[in-house]
Amino acid sequence: MVRHRAFKDSDALLKAIRDLAPAHVYFSTAYYQDPTASMDQKGWLGADLVFDIDADHLDTPCKIVHDDWKCKGCGALGKGSAPKICPKCKNDRMEVTAWLCDRCLQEAKEETISLLEMIFSDLQLGQADLRVYFSGHRGYHVHLYSEAFRTMGEEQRRELVNYLLGQDLDPALQGMEEVSEGGVSILRGPQWGDPGWRGRIVRGIYEVLTKEGSNLGLSANQLNVLRSWDKDNLFSKPFWSSLKGINTATWRNIAQRAIGETAAKIDTVVTTDVHRLIRLPGTLNGHTGLLGVDVPLEGLDEFDPFRESLAFSGIMKIRVKDAPKFDLGGNQFGPYQNEEVELPSYAAMLLLCKRRAEPIG
Questions:
Q1: What are the pLDDT digits (tens) for 154-184?
Q2: I need a surface site. Which of 32, 44, 179, 351 has the fewest CB within 10 A?
Q3: What order of strands is seen across the sheet that includes strand 357-359?
Q4: Which residues lie below 8 Å from residue 284, measured CB to CB, with a gap of 6+?
């Protein structure tokens, strides 16, 4: 790592990048009086608030197809997300081989859009105060440039993160309570369209209830009640007391599931770190050979990372050790197994960066 560097202008930065030819380029989200000094002498002035949403942290079903892990202790192998500890030797050091696919990046994009909705509605920030970047690999970065957040310390940032995660959120404090009407105890709760976490809990409950195969810990009778309920009523009228036979404790358990469903899926370490290094937009990601791209907010829905982050042209000949089928640049490639192929340079670079291939010639 070449660190503690500062540049007076973009030309000096570009010259350093050309001279070093690094696999990755990062910059600090912090502002310092003297960026070139040692950490304890830099003079911290503040740091932009940054959120990282990565498919690595999402439980996408496609991982079982294209991701592998290997225990560094005993060599045990597995497919999908790596376990926290090896099931054989209980070692916690894992070597992960991750791939990127349309499903992974689509879910990362959807989570980014959900985060932006929370930022705009709950934090009351405008679009001018933030930028969204594709990381060039498996996710997106959201940078907030508001002066209101810049001088926040780690503890304050952790409180903000806990809010976005719905950490220790009590449904009883979000309007879910039992009241007596005409001598009958009924449940009242937040309504669709309520601001903040109240409305988010309602939307999350709808998602949990309509998700096929959800294990909600309900009895057979309660499941029958849910199956007979017209869930479209959720949009038109209060629904808490319309489902008989489900008590307040059960509703609160479902609400907790809903909070987990709608919470922001962010890397908490990135957001709480006041000295964070993050990928420099417009540079190549050494894991893929793809560009870190500035994505306009109005174009985020339609943004296609497999087309709009390509950096290389021409043709390359490589020997591929193994690679799954993948789409890039509007073309489909693979699968490959111990073979020489001639590919567009952007596809060849992806395989080279992923250590799935070697150059020929």
A1: 999 999 999 999 999 988 888 888 777 776 6
A2: 179
A3: 336-344, 315-323, 357-359
A4: 25, 136, 290, 291, 292, 311
